[in-house]
Amino acid sequence: MESKNKFWKGVLVGALVMAFAGLLIVGVSAGIFLIGKTVMDDQTQILRDQDPDLSSEGDLELDRIVEKMGYIQDIVEQYYLFDEDMEKVEDGIYTGLMYGLEDPYSVYYNEKDYQSLMEDTTGEYCGIGAMVSQNRSTGIATVIKVFETAPAYEAGMLPGDIIYKVNDENVAGLELDLLVSNYIRGEEGSKVKVTVLRGEANDEVELNIERRQIEVPTVEHEMLADHVGYIYVMQFDSVTSQQFKNAVEDLESQGMEKLVIDLRDNPGGVLDAVVEMMAYVLPEDKLGGMLVSTADKDGKGDRFFSSGGEIRYESDYSQRNGGFPKEDGHELDIPLAVLVNGNSASASEVFTGAIQDYKAGVVVGTQTFGKGIVQSLLPLGDGTAIKLTTAHYYTPGGTDLHGVGLTPDIEVELDEELRTQAVVEKSEDNQLQAAIEALQ
Known about the structure:
By secondary structure, this protein is of the alpha+beta class. Helices cover 30% and strands 25% of the residues. The protein has helices at residues 2-17, 37-50, 62-79, 86-99, 111-117, 151-155, 176-184, 240-253, 271-281, 347-358, 430-439, and strands at 23-24, 107-109, 124-127, 130-134, 141-146, 162-166, 169-170, 191-198, 203-210, 212-215, 219-223, 228-233, 258-262, 290-295, 302-307, 310-315, 326-327, 336-340, 362-365, 373-379, 385-394, 410-411. Helix 8 (240-253) runs parallel beside helix 9. The longest helix is centred in the N-terminal third of the chain and has 18 residues, at 62-79.
């Protein structure tokens, strides 16, 4: 009982950290897989170009604050029982500043965390092979998918498990990308002990998992009965749009007549990838070819179009360092269904919103997560960085879904008994079957 009380105490502390949702625990530098990774990269320089003096005082009374901090420090030095770790104290000051914004997506990264965040990934990760969603208010990290044949699956991890401890250290409330990079990832062949809370009784279950190199394809596909193609998009990475196109072409070669695109538990990803996928699927003769747009607090932003046989990009900022325009001219003119759930967030909501606005298909499942904002990653010049919410994004029809999400055309809850199964057979998947029925 004492350990569970400590857990819920950790949850309350974790709420102060306010982590974000829907990222991977397979070793991905999860923090950059948000809608607008390209926007994040570009706006770092854009913001500096617009305001070279990013260190200006703004509205804070810095002289008064510094004086008060010095006074507090004098008290600490005189009365505090233990030794101070001055590096952690300083990090705590900056973390507190970002927390004061009351935005769960705006975060300070110290030098170690920022380095871990920016480590290159190649699609192969040395981790455990599970997908985790984190509640943005409480910091609770919950397993939502376990990959078959992965170490987590072999160790007995199940959807619904709450990540409580890693190697006996309470990680409740720790931001998810840091949980991944600093606790879950490690050398191939090394062991990690993950303690989870399971079921309504929150039973503690210890799982000893051997880390392995895990190849996680972002797109999987197969042909189902009655010429129904099925494509599962796990996240939007830089390679996802090409993998998606290859999947469509393969299914077309097998005689595909209808298609289900599964975006359940998809946390989002790279903006360019979802833009290219939308352009590949949608017609060019509706809504002016608009695919997605963003706007900052001054109403400035980026706009992506598919028209005239190419993907075009317009911006109110300086010249964009990106790969647009690109040739397009493709349309997927067959009956289409998109599957979503409460963990479909960010870029997956951009895609789904476009399908609804264009009336290009039917959306099946449950209300989506509702993340309609863009984060920019801003290095501070000393090896540290902040991630800051800088813009809203809008569907082609102008919908701002942040905090609300998208409502499916056909609402279907996943059967209760399937929610904790590590592997759900497609024939038993009632949401998938509902999507197939909607195509008839």
